[in-house]
Amino acid sequence: MIQKQELAYQDQQSIIQKQDLAYQGQQGLIRNQQDTEIDRLMALLGNGDSGSSKKPPCLDGTRTSILKWISRWIEQPTDDGKRGLCLIGAAGKEKSSVGASVAEAVRACKRLGAEFYFTVDEQDRNKGVIPVLSRQLASWGDRRLRVEIASAIDDDREIVQRTLEAQFKKLVQEPLETLADDVDCRPLVMIFDGLDECNDQYATRLLRLIGKSFATLPIHVRFIIMSRPEQHLLHQYDAEPLDTRLYVRSLDLEDVGEVEKDIEAFLRQELPQMVWGLVKRPSDWPGEERRTILIRLSGGLWVWIVTVARMLTDPRFRDPEKQLDALLLSASDTDGEYGHNTDLYAIYSQIMNRACPPNSHSELLTLFQDVLGALCVVKEPINIHTLASLLYLDHPNSVGFTESLRTKVLGYLQSVLTVPDVEDDPSRDARPIQSVHKSFKDYLTDQKRCEARFLVNIAEQHRRMAIRCLCRMEDLQKPNICGIDPSMLNSEIGWNNDPTNNNGDSSGDGDSSSKSDDKDTNRASNDIKGDRDGGIDRGVIDEKVLKHTENSTRSKGDERLDIKGLAQRHISLALQYACENWANHVSGTPPECDDVYMSVNTFARTRLLH
After folding, report:
1. Which residues contact 128 (CB under 8 A, 6 or more apart)?
2. N or C end of the chain: which has fewer CB within 10 A?
């Protein structure tokens, strides 16, 4: 009898184990289904770039004092309520490198919630800061954040088109508030670099939102902001609610002696590698005496020493010794003594005059002026092929114009511009040309400091760029530029990998039955909302949810025409730029420029509907 009972008990245990395994399998299936739906919703945030790859961290062993201080601040309790830190400093104080080093350190500890690096040349990217931050938070590792963000997107599929305030609340603040009940949770860090390079009004609004959010966000959430000491930002730092929530630390007040030690480390470790093959004894170049003079001349300004190093090692000028001697000669006073010389603009002037000497041919000077002017007003960074296509209109008789740009102008400005070292081909993947530092554009537009022949008049350059864009569209636009069969229906055309294609269907799978699945989609979304606490209800599995997910993940053989691929093949980057930005350049043109408005009128009458 006992043996039978024991066998029956074992059978029951076996049945329970099988049921438990089946239940776990069902739970895993539900989780996979939810993850699939979440991925579809997250795709609606787009693929904006945080800009982190463009910012190198500090050199190993440098800026140790400020980095240790920030590390302690991140980890310490915040009984005073100050959970934000703002590092301010003038141009060249290595704010971005400090931010990149902090991001690198907290990322290694899995404490980096999100980061964003503003740049003055990419205002459209700057305005996409919230979706980029939200996507990073969703990938941080806490499922609650991922589910909450997906739910917010599902509630409003057009959330990325809403105001900054609405986006911040739904995609950042409310998801972070779900972590409020965590006990002994380690810090979660959010980093914003270069806030001064963002549109003034936009930056002010973002700061206010961050300040107000401190009242409801978990105490372990930290915000770190880097910016120049611009007046409109300083006013926000000193006003409610940021004045009681934010530490403000100035890098301008850092110990110059410590910074000079870091610069010495750069000159000893990095510069010898940069001049390798250009001087006889690179390991100790430029020698103790000249190294000491360079440190003194830098005045603790990092961008000065980095710009000088790039100038000395510019491949177009193969004698760093002569370049350094000329620099030291220009920096010494009448008695041959060297003091602090943190005048970065003087270095820029020397670079410009070396690239385009005063006795240069007028055609070369015009080419320099056109290139510099265009790079100062473009609405987004462009590569050399796009630049050449836009400027070619002003130089129609030039042969090999792209190569001329590279060899005659850009090649001589590698001390101040990042010029990709690529072969002259029409590759669409050529990296854009960008300033090494924002201060170079400041120099080119400074009427008091920039030499007249290099001075960039922003309004005039907008006028010229507006006309170039309109002319490019006039020359390159044509009806049905992608050569699509006119008999094709709209439903047969889709943007490959665009989650919003097919009349708003977020799946992007092109299934004609997608509309009929809307209710199932909502049911799946509701299942997501029910999972905001990170757990799964052990109730009955919703068969419609299973059906919806099965349908959404099945391979359906999308046969629609990929218009995005066609556009990339048939529409040049120059034409894309012209179509997207001509109006921006027209708006920057003075009202008295009749030629621009005549061009707009002609374009509107003849080409607008192509």
Report:
1. 46, 48, 160
2. N
